[in-house]
Design brief:
- The structure is a single chain.
- By secondary structure, the chain is an alpha+beta fold.
- Helix content is about 35%, strand content about 10%.
- It has a 5-stranded mixed sheet with strand order 2-1-5-3-4, covered by helices on one side.
- Strand 1 and strand 2 form a beta hairpin.
- The longest helix is centred in the last third of the chain and has 14 residues.
- It is globular.
- The N and C termini lie far apart (about 45 Å).
- The model has no long low-confidence stretch (mean pLDDT about 95).
């Protein structure tokens, strides 16, 4: 089957019921997307499907025909750069394991809602767990990224 990942078409020889996560990591070598829980509850495996965040551990290859997948390795654009710069400037990551999923979710939020309120940030990031509990820094980085893009917080 052919999958569109990070702007390239990839021929993937795998069963249609294989979770996307394993195709990304084990077949294509895109290991930035992490395995966390395997049941779509932690967010470590978050990728973008046609611009919306999804949990790659719970979506099968057969469900992805004509869907454009973006992983952390392929995340580009001004919003992604603003998020990544804010993450670095505010030293968000502690152990870093969950951060690719956090960055993917934060970028999707800001692309859909350039001026998120605290409630919108909370709703968008709910389900992206951080065992190191860097939630305060994550929220601050999202606000900083929005501000750097010209969107004052909660405006």
């Amino acid at each position: 089957m052919a999958l569109s990942i990070n702007g390239q078409l990839h021929a993937v020889d795998a069963p249609a019921d294989m979770p996307l996560l394993w195709a990304l990591r084990d077949i294509l070598g895109l290991t930035g997307t992490k395995y966390g829980c395997g049941v779509a509850q932690c967010g470590a495996c978050t990728v973008s499907a046609d611009g919306s965040p999804i949990r790659s551990c719970s979506v099968t290859l057969g469900d992805l025909a004509d869907v454009k997948i973006t992983t952390i390795e392929g995340l580009t654009g001004s919003t992604a750069k603003a998020v990544q710069d804010a993450w670095t400037a505010l030293d968000v990551a502690q152990c870093g394991y969950c951060q690719s999923g956090q960055v993917m979710a934060a970028t999707a939020l800001l692309e859909a809602t350039p001026k998120p309120t605290d409630d919108e940030i909370e709703a968008a990031m709910n389900g992206n767990l951080c065992r190191c509990a860097t939630y305060v820094r994550i929220r601050a980085a999202i606000r900083a990224a929005a501000a750097s893009l010209g969107a004052p917080h909660g405006a």
